[in-house]
Amino acid sequence: MLHGSSAAPAASECLGTFSAGTSVALDGSMSMSRYADFLKGLLREPAAVSAPTPSSPALAAVIAAKVEPAQSGLVVELGAGTGAVTQALLDRGIAPERLIAVEYCTYFAGLLAQRFAGVTVVQGDAFAFERYLPAGSQIAAVVSGVPLLNFPLPRRRALITRALALQGPGGRFIQLSYGWRPPITSAFGIAPEKTIVWRNFPPAHVWTFTAQEQPAARQAPVQQAAGRGQAVQALFRVSPPTP
Ligand SMILES: C[S@@+](CC[C@H](N)C(=O)[O-])C[C@H]1O[C@@H](n2cnc3c(N)ncnc32)[C@H](O)[C@@H]1O
After folding, report:
1. Residue 56 C-alpha to ligand 1 middle, in angstroms?
2. Count of helix runs (H) and strand runs (E) in the chain
3. Which ligand 1 atom sits nearest the alpha carbon of residue 146?
4. Which domains does the chain have, with CATH numbers?
5. Alpha-carbon span 124 to 154, nearest angstrom
6. 13, 49, 90, 175, best to mutate for ligand 1 pocket (most atoms within 8 Å of CB)
7. pLDDT at residue 163, rounded to an integer
8. Which tens digits make up the pLDDT trace of 160-209?
């Protein structure tokens, strides 16, 4: 299902038609039609996409492996693109009803909604992801493909600390990056764990921030976010999980 967002920035120019063409293997791991879909988005929105290819299945699997399926709550994917990581999360055992994909590019958002039945797809801004969550949501992990290094440091820091503050102990913010430096050096005093994935073009880094104990100082953002979530639930009518 696809939800448009009045809270999102003006819909990007990243428009196109969705290909439902037959898949021709490029290298046994990525289909020609999927790569064509990615190129359409890249050509229309190069700065936002900021990568020459979608994540390889190997990279997507490494990212998904950082998410613990037994951790209860929603898995929020920011900058889902053509859905390489979305697919890996599903393969990891995350039920589609637990997944919310926030994608800025209109074309990619439509593609995701078409490709992944049961996943909630929002055309919106990752930096305001809390607005798209149902009221009182519990979050198990936030996974980001947004090219954060293209954004100013204060915005990166605000996004990551808010995402961790919304989660309980063990909650995670997992960031895909083609840069060799982390999006921020630490969150709540904890440095991210680094994983390098060579089986991707270009080789990529996965930076994992793990929420530790929940000190009292971190309760306020959770309550604020729940308030925003209530307003948004009315706006977007995020569907409840299907049994
Ligand atoms: C490097 S691509 C990653 C795509 C996909 N996650 C993958 O691994 O193949 C970055 C994605 O982030 C999206 N994006 C960039 N800025 C965004 C924002 N502010 N909010 C939501 N999505 C954004 C782009 O449109 C693009 O789909």
Report:
1. 15
2. 7, 8
3. 12
4. 2-16+28-236 (3.40.50.150)
5. 20
6. 49
7. 96
8. 999 999 997 778 999 999 999 999 999 988 999 999 999 999 999 999 99
Contacts of 27 (CB under 8 A, 6+ apart): none
CA–CA gap between residue 239 and residue 136 (Å, rounded): 14
Tokens representing 185 are 């050096």
Residues 6+ apart with CB under 8 A from 153: 184
Q: With left for phi above 0 and alpha for psi between -120 and 50, is residue 98 left, alpha or beta? A: alpha
**Each residue of 25-76: pLDDT tens digit?**
334 456 777 677 777 777 777 777 777 789 999 999 999 999 999 988 999 9
Tell me how far the alpha carbon of residue 170 lies from the centroid of ligand 1, in angstroms.
25
Give 106-161 pLDDT, tens digit per residue. Answer: 999 999 999 999 999 999 999 999 999 999 999 999 999 999 999 999 999 999 99
Which tens digits make up the pLDDT trace of 62-84? 999 999 999 889 999 999 999 99
Pairing between β-strand 172-177 and β-strand 204-210 as defined by DSSP bridges = antiparallel
* Residues in contact with ligand 1 (CB, 6 Å cut-off): 45, 48-51, 54-55, 78-81, 84-85, 102-105, 108, 125-127, 145-147, 176
DSSP 155-182: HHHHHHHHHHHTS-TT-EEEEEESSSS-
Q: Ligand 1 centroid to 213 CA: how many Å?
A: 30
